[in-house]
Each structure stands twice: as structure tokens, then as C-alpha cells.
Amino acid sequence: MRRLATWTACLLAVAAPVWGQVRPGVEARPDFSEMSRAEIRAVVRAMPKGGDLHVHLSGVPYAETYLQWAAEDGLCIDVERWALTDACTPTDNLIFASSLTPDQRASMLDSLSTRRPNFAGRSGHDQFFTAFDRFGWTRDYRRGDMLAGLMTTLAAQNTFYVEVMWMPQSRPARDLGAAAGDGNDLAAMDTALATDLPALVEAAVAETDAVEARARALLRCDPEVEVYPWDPPGGCRVTVRFLIQANRLLPPAQTYGQLALGEALIASDPRWVGLQLVAPEDHPNALANYDAHMAMFRRLASRGAPVALHAGELTLDYATPQQISGHVRTAVAAGARRIGHGVAIPYEIGANDLIADMASRGVAVEINLTSNADILGVEGEEHPVIWLRQSGVPVVYTTDDPGISRSDLSSEYARAVFDTGARYEDLVTSARNALAFSFLSGEGLWLDPGSYGHMAPACAGQIDGDVTSACRALLDHSLKAREQWRYETLLARFETDWSARRR
Description:
There is one protein chain. By secondary structure, the chain is an alpha/beta fold. It has helices at about 1-10, 35-45, 65-70, 100-110, 125-135, 135-140, 145-155, 170-180, 185-195, 195-220, 250-270, 285-290, 290-300, 325-335, 350-360, 370-375, 385-390, 400-405, 410-420, 425-435, 470-475, 480-500; strands at about 50-55, 75-80, 85, 95, 160-165, 240-245, 270-280, 310, 340, 365, 395. The chain folds into three domains: about 1-30 and about 440-500, no CATH class; about 50-60 and about 140-435, Alpha-Beta Barrel (TIM Barrel); about 65-125, no CATH class. Strands 1-5-6-7 form a four-stranded parallel beta sheet. The protein has a four-stranded parallel beta sheet with strand order 8-9-10-11. It has a three-stranded antiparallel beta sheet with strand order 3-2-4. The protein is globular.
């Protein structure tokens, strides 16, 4: 508790703004209509962005990083598939990753990303989803390195919260689900899973410990200092939470085994905060089992598990009108608090009613502009994000797989300006949404998440004055309020500095 109190005292030392309130030293906020694209990129990179709620851990590293690790670990490159393999004896088709020629290196960068359209004759969709298989040998045992890289990258962008998707104990969870039933009678499966789940949770917690320990060691974080204080530099200041990413392409019982582990982890370990469902939504298995998956999530959400769902990552190029007409609506009905992508919302039956319902319920949409352009070819005015913003649906700009897309959170924010006409105020709202609609525990700092006109009574009216004991108590006892206050502090500093440079 002493550390939390110290952290709160440091945090309160800098005033935090209420949106729309004019603060001393801030004459004007950034106006993108007066800036070149280059200046917009610089401003967006410097501004605090709240957090990233939709990022797959194995999709974070750029291809260059995967190649560096492969060279360090003695892995080989299959020059027919342009894929990483395990350690090997070089042959005609296998060469050491450390001995790539410049041309071979360029082909590997193309193979592990979407930077070159139609590489190896693959569409953007196929190139994106198959890239994971081509760096698969590295992605599991380098998770701590991946996390350290993500934390460093976010901190460099003045962003200090992230919810990361990955799956600990993936194979054992699948096997446990397969032994527990067929995925139809979920009550019977819960009973069958109950005996063996505690041991699996223990193993998953140990795996999480190892990933975090490796990341913090690489970042040179003090293991005796919490993530939250202002003292540690760089990535050590980033608050990390994890989402279980269950695989929708598996037999349903195996998918439920992963979800059951996720539910138990959330109950046991505060670092795990929610459930997700990943892999191509247009895959035949995903389409065939969609209703079964939604029944699983409906059951888990009814027991209190926070749910964010990939839904509506479809166009008519990859699904029929019938298949594309209800995925987002069904996900919302199943208890999803956030929707990942939502590109197919315009194709849903009763789309206007769905939008109004999502706005009313506060169901946020995680928007991945670069990913949607690369995979689905949906961008600019074709993207539903403009409609969502105008309709009051909470929007959060996120990265998805920044290493594969060769993007980052700042680039996604800049793309929102260039391609969809987002204003600075829209970006600040997205940043606030990233925390308000996160799965962090505790009471939020705002009474009206999404519009941000009224702060919680405990802290209202104290922006430029003394902080009451009631406000300190809220920040001491609520992780969400604490992260939101940190963001407001960063935003105040950014806007004050920006305004001062414009005088």
C-alpha cells in the first residue's frame, strides 16, 4: 500500500485536464487542417495514446527482429518457402539465418510481412494469415523478448497501457478440452474439466511469470518496483495485461478447453483480464462453428468473464451474404464488451439498429486500419469507422499485428487522420476510450466514458487544486482510475508543451 500511496502522490503532482476545459498555458490544441502530413505524423507520435487493446504478441516483432533472433539461435531459412525452420544442417534449400545474402534477406522481409503486394502470388489476406506459420519456430520461446519490444515501442510513443493476446499452455488446454467432451454439452464439459484445470492454471501462471520476468530483465526493470511508479524509464512504465486468445479453427471441444483455462486464469491471476477468439473468421471451420463459439462465450460472459471478440473481419470476397449478415450482432448478444474489427457491420441485417444498440450499451470497436486495408482491401471512406464515430459507438484505434503490417500505434492514429478525417479531438477520445473500455479493474475516473464531460465526484473540480482524500482513495484502490489519471497528466503536459511552442 505504501508504494501505491507514493505512486498516487507523484501522479497528483501534475494537474490533469477535463476535456473542453481551458487550462493555463494552453491557448489552442493541435489543428490538423493547418498541418502537413509530415507534421501530423510527428504530432501524433508525440501525443499520449492511452493504450493498445488489440495486439497479438507473436505479430508484434518486425521481420528484421525475427531474423536477428533466428541468427542468434542458429535457426535456418527454408529458401523455397521463405520461412524460418529449426536448427539444421544446411542443404540446397536450407541455409543458416546468419548467412543470408541481401537479396535473400529482402525476400524474407517480404515473406514475413505485407510490405510487398502479391508476394509469392498471395493476396494480402493470404499473405497476412500465412505469415504466422513462416516464423512459427521462433514465436513461442521468444515471448518475453516480444513483450519487451512491445513495451519499449509503446513507451517511445508516450503510451503506457496494453492488453496483449496470447495463449499459455495452448496444447495442454486443447488436450484437456478434447478429453472433456465434444463441445456441445458445455455443462458436462465444465464438470469434466474441473478436476484438471487447477494444475493447468498453475502451469499457465508459471509460464506468464517467465514471460514477464524475461521482458523485465531485458528492459533492466527493478524487480522490486511496481509497474506503475513514474521512476522506472521507458518500457518498464508500461502496464501490461493479457487476453487469452482461443483458436476458432480447432474442434469446438478444444477451443472450449482453451477458453475454460482462460476463465480460470482470469479468476486466479489479475494479469489476465479477458477472453478473445482468433484466426481467420472466414475459414470454413470458423464459419461452421460460429454459433457454437458464441454459445461458449455467452456462457462464460454470464459468469462474469470479460469478453472481446474478433467479429465482422469479413467482406463479400471471403464470405457469402448470409454468412456476413450477423456475426457482429451475435457477438454483442453473446456478451462481447468490445468488437475487434467490425468491418462487416454495414452488411449486417438491421445495421442501423445494431449501431444504435452498441452505442447505447457502450460496446467499443477496436479499429485496425492498416490490417483492414492489407487483409480485406477496406480503407478510407469505405471503412465503417467514420459511421461509428458519428453514431456515438466508442472507437479505439489499435494495431492488430504491427510487425506483419509494418505499422505501429502512432501510424494507426495518423492513418485515422489521413484516411478517415479524424480530428485531434477524435484521437484524444480514442486514447481515453482505450482506458475507459479496457478490462482493468476498479471504478473509472469518468462518469460518461465515451464523451468525457464529467469526472467522478471523488475527483471532480480538483484538476488545478488540492486533491481530496476521497480522490486519493479512488486512485489508490482503482487500477482503471489510476491509469486514466496518468493519461490525463500526460495529455496536460503534451498540450501545454505544444501550445508553448506555437507562441
